[in-house]
Amino acid sequence: MENVFEEGMNPVIIAHYNHSGKWGRPRSSAACKTVVLLLICVLIVLENITVLLALWRNKRFHSRMYFLIGNLALSDLLAGVAYMVNIFTSANYSDYRCHAMFVIVG
After folding, report:
1. Which class for 47: exposed (0-12), middle (13-18), buried (19 or more C-beta within 10 A)?
2. Which residues of the chain have pLDDT under 50?
3. Which one, of 11, 30, 8, 27, lies nearest residue 19 by Cα?
4. E runs forming strands in 1-106
5. 75 and 39 in contact (C-beta within 8 Å)?
6. Looking at the chain, which terminus has fewer C-beta neighbours within 10 angstroms, N or C?
7. Cα–Cα nearest to 95, from 32, 4, 30
């Protein structure tokens, strides 16, 4: 299955896919992979929310070390949310994106 360059596709993105060898590969729906990745992201977000709530509610955890653990949990939470957004916004229309969309969406 050969992909065809259509009107409106971003030539820089097409050049990248040509260079990386991904342009000629057939695309699969990969619904199962998407569901597994979303499930992992949801678990990451829930686990980090649990850590943040435990640190916030327990006065014994209000020290420097736990402050750093809370920062790690918050950054991991935000990374999980960003990856979920990336999964939802990545689709078959990625060939049509402009440079600004790659910076904003990923």
Report:
1. middle
2. 1, 95, 106
3. 11
4. none
5. no
6. N
7. 4
């729906």: which residue's tokens?
29
- Amino acid letter, 93: Y
Residue 1 makes CB contacts below 8 A (sequence gap 6+) with 26
Q: In which element (H, E) is residue 98 found?
A: none
Tokens of 28: 């699969």
Residue 89 has what pLDDT?
Answer: 74
| Cβ neighbours of 97 (radius 10 Å) | 19
Single-letter code of the amino acid located at 53 = L
